Amino acid sequence: MIPRIRIAALLLLLGTLPAPATAASSPATSSAADQTGVALTIYNDNLGLVKDRRTITLPVGEGELRFMDVAAQIIPASLSFRSLDAPDALRILEQNYEYDLLNQQKLLDKYVGKEVKLYQKNPYTEREEAVTATIVANNGGPIFRIGNDITFGHPGRILFPGIPADLIAKPTLVWLLDNGRKGPQQVEAAYLTAGMSWRADYVLTLNKDDDRADLASWVTIDNKSGATYRDARLKLVAGSVNRVREEPPFPERRAALAMVAAPQFREESFFEYHLYTLQRPATVKDNQTKQISLASATDIPVRKEFVLKGEESYYHAPYGDTQANRKVGVYVELENRKDRGLGMPLPKGTVRVYKHDGDGSLQFVGEDAIDHTPRDEKVRIKLGDAFDVVATRKQTEWKKIASDSYEAAFELSLRNHKDEDITVKVVEPVPGDWTMLSSSLPYQKGSAFSAEFRVPVKKDGEATLAYRVRMRY
Question: Checking CA distances to 303, which of 11, 83, 292, 454 falls within 20 to 30 Å?
Fold first, then answer.
């Protein structure tokens, strides 16, 4: 028998030894309910920057954090994570993006070789009866073993005992962290995500004489990133941001002449781009198209222009025959200047143009896309082709005067069936080194390879342009 004093000493010694290691604690989790703020910057080219701040409590030491409610189209290589309260006390050991999402096919795949219950209504008793079955395969549909029999196409419900640990309901960021701070702390996860874009949409309303217009502009945001951003601080970047193109890493009324940004947005230059900051929080839901007013202006001077454009092929061979019913384009042009009622950098987008008809009803007259337009530059919008202006073209002479030199003569006829006088701008794309030998109307060089004429045409009248040009190419 062991003396009592020795037993007491042994117990005292055991009490000083470290306690055996317990099972690893369950991972810490964080959802959108922990959010204290979201900042969202959206680019034109299918890209968004998310900065998600949350207050969470992490166990001291090494542990796992499952950070849920993030974008489904996240770019994992862009991830950053930090503690805002104690940046030196939180160290990232490993980060993962879990995207093996739960669905019917994957759930069946995970249960191949395992038991489930099949429920089916008995047609005689109208009660559901359950049978235990093993899923033996899931290729094109589940195949079951019930007892010693194999079957498929079971008409009843399948009940699973649980969700496999490696399947998740929504995309989740998982960090292995070494935390040295007790209690709650504010953290920030920042990442880029695909599936987000924005554009500007403009509504231009012409007056009766087509020389003044009102302009309203909207920001249209399209969110298909797989996440909702509530009460986000929203910024929009206008400009062409260079990106490395790779395969997706994972499947799946009149007033003063002034145009001012609506109080909602503040515009500023940012690097080589322009930044538009919404001056209030906004919620951007997943699978939502959202429009926010950007700016407006009234009584803007505009200029309507009729344009007939030629083709370079006219100058490379004789054709002689008359080309009838050439299309004359209709454009409106405005200058993005402060003294013209504008003067704000205009993001690229679509301009839709309207005009009131004789009954006072607003009618759509055309639309065009515009690129990013700095202040003091022109905006030119093609509306369509003129119905009542007809053009014909005829090559009156063609000759080769040297191995690399040619002369050609053309005659253009413009007929105006409108009840007002117009002027048609004729743009001729003359190739090579060219010299205008003669012309019935003055011309100017629009560029090194184009001659431009302005042809006045009276209402219900006809005008003719004739010219001869020598080309060397």
Answer: 292
- Relative to beta strand 28-30, strand 61-67 is parallel
Instruction: Give DSSP secondary structure letters for 175-203.
Output: EEEEE---SEEEEEEEEEESSEEEEEEEE
d(CA 213, CA 302): 7
Domain of 94, in residue numbers: 26-100+169-193
Number of other CB atoms surrounding residue 332 within 10 Å: 23
CATH code, 312 = 2.60.40.1170
207: exposed, middle or buried (Cβ count in 10 Å: 0-12, 13-18, 19+): middle
Average pLDDT over residues 252-270: 57
Q: Which two tokens stand for residue 403?
A: 């191995």
Same domain, 31 and 147: no
Number of domains in the chain: 3
Q: Give the pLDDT mean for 344-357.
A: 93
411 in the same domain as 320: yes
- As beta bridge partners, residue 144 has 135, 151
Give the model confidence (pLDDT) of 148-157 as tens digits.
999 998 888 8
Q: What is the pLDDT of residues 190-245, one digit of tens each?
A: 999 999 999 999 999 999 999 999 999 999 999 999 999 999 999 999 887 887 76
Residue 206 domain flag: no
| Residue corresponding to tokens 């991830």 | 79
Looking at the fold, whether 404 and 459 belong to one and the same domain comes out as yes
Of the pLDDT bands very low, low, confident and very high (cuts 50, 70, 90), residue 301 is very high
- 276-277-279-280 Cα dihedral, nearest 10 degrees: 120
CA 372 to CA 32: how far, in whole Å? 36
* Alpha carbons 421 and 178: distance in angstroms, whole number: 80
Dist. CA 440–CA 313, nearest whole Å: 22
With 80 as the cut, is the pLDDT of residue 159 above it?
yes
Confidence of residue 121 (pLDDT cuts 50, 70, 90): confident
Structure letter (DSSP) for residue 373: B
> Is 70 exceeded by the pLDDT of residue 349?
yes
- On whether residue 405 sits in a domain, the answer given is yes
